[in-house]
């Protein structure tokens, strides 16, 4: 900054103010200009104030008079970087490294050769190789592709592979996982099967199934079956993804009149609906 000489002044003083901090006046002599050396640990532009005062030295001591105050937004020059300096050192400000945003709906991001449909929120999955399958007998039969599904898996989820073959299922409800054969079918040139539990769906080498979609599951009539929900369950209008009438937390035996796609039809007060068989105990003849 620069200024015109002030009559009676024997020297001048400057102070740098930052926000609400009190200034500290520095005597810079009988001059008409001054340059501030600015440094700030944040390494970014800051909003600073500068005060210039005229000083009159006399026998009774110094007297000062404020000439002007300047507030200015001053950008700081970029700080030099030493590549050999640790990022956590004191030589430069710490800049956090960005982290990748996790993808929660993994079933929408499977590779093109795998398609999973009819799933609800909370269902997750990923493609796995022979190591992820972990069964020597299946590896010897020839694994063409596989997908592991977990989370909120509901009956009626359809898994399709782009390659031909036969499909087996490793059920995660057992430890170690139990192997089941699935009835595969062809749909739009893909090899498909449906599941209702968490586990690994494996496509093996073999004959391609016929181009026949599965028949709609017909309800199985029950006459001597009761179910006891051991978890809060959705009470639906129809299985497997029908509108939810309510969420029931009943802990009692409920008569079941039908079974379809892993769901039981029960009466709750004056309303009939369907609850998932994954969350109930059963007694009596409750079908297959």
Explain how this protein is built.
- There is one protein chain.
- The chain has 288 residues and is mainly β.
- It has three domains: 1-99, Immunoglobulin-like (Sandwich); 106-204, no CATH class; 220-285, SH3 Domains (SH3 type barrels, Roll), CATH 2.30.30.
- Helices cover 3% and strands 45% of the residues.
- The chain is built from two helices and 21 strands.
- It has helices spanning 130-133, 136-141; strands spanning 11-18, 26-29, 46-58, 61-74, 114-117, 123-127, 143-151, 157-161, 166-171, 178-181, 185-187, 190-195, 199-204, 220-221, 224-229, 233-236, 244-248, 254-260, 263-268, 271-276, 280-285.
- The strands form five sheets. Strands 14, 15, 18, 19, 20 and 21 form a six-stranded antiparallel sheet that branches. Strands 6-7-13-9-10 form a five-stranded antiparallel sheet. Strands 2-1-3-4 form a four-stranded antiparallel sheet, with no helix packed on it.
- Strand 11 (185-187) and strand 12 form a beta hairpin.
Question: Any chance you could write out the topology, listing elements then pairs?
Answer:
Layout: E1 11-18, E2 26-29, E3 46-58, E4 61-74, E5 114-117, E6 123-127, H1 130-133, H2 136-141, E7 143-151, E8 157-161, E9 166-171, E10 178-181, E11 185-187, E12 190-195, E13 199-204, E14 220-221, E15 224-229, E16 233-236, E17 244-248, E18 254-260, E19 263-268, E20 271-276, E21 280-285
Antiparallel strand pairs: 1-2, 1-3, 3-4, 5-8, 6-7, 7-13, 8-12, 9-10, 9-13, 11-12, 14-18, 15-18, 15-21, 16-17, 18-19, 19-20
